[in-house]
Amino acid sequence: MKRSKRIFLRIFAVLAGLVVIYHIVWLINCLSYKKYVDRVGVDEFGNSSLIDEDGICYSAFYPNYLSFTGNLAICAVRPDDVKVGDQFVDMIIWPKPFSDSFKIGIMLETVTESNYNETTHESEVATDRACFLLDEDTHFIDEPNQYELEQWETAQDAVATYYEKANEVWGILGTVS
Fold first, then answer.
1. What is the pLDDT of residues 156-171, one digit of tens each?
2. Packing angle between helix 156-170 and helix 146-154, nearest 10 degrees?
3. Cα distance between residue 72 and residue 29, in whole Å
């Protein structure tokens, strides 16, 4: 009886130690996002976002509890009067834990239908989306199809601008190669 109790206590101590170590490593990783959050600031509601004079929105999110991946995002503020053919580009940057490398997600939305309501001043829109996953050297991780490549070509200026903006705000990414 005494021997089995000692074995149980040892197993419990090892498991508790692993849990504590995991939490410490998670906390260190989480704190590495502070430099990104500080660059955009935190409002009175605890949201970490910033809109610059060009209407570009930046946000930074800490990793969720026990997750090692937070994200940084850049997007244009959408106007109220969206028209068919308007294209919007969003960028999400996932810093890799304990590394200086990143994965980048680009979402291109092209408005295919738009109904503006004069009474509520809101637009109901339908969009066509193309999404891309890139490494930090802007190489596609998943090979896009022909339609996605065509969409990618139309968004090159916006993507290049977002890369420059990410570099200005967070000191990462550089330029599109």
1. 888 888 888 888 888 8
2. 60
3. 15
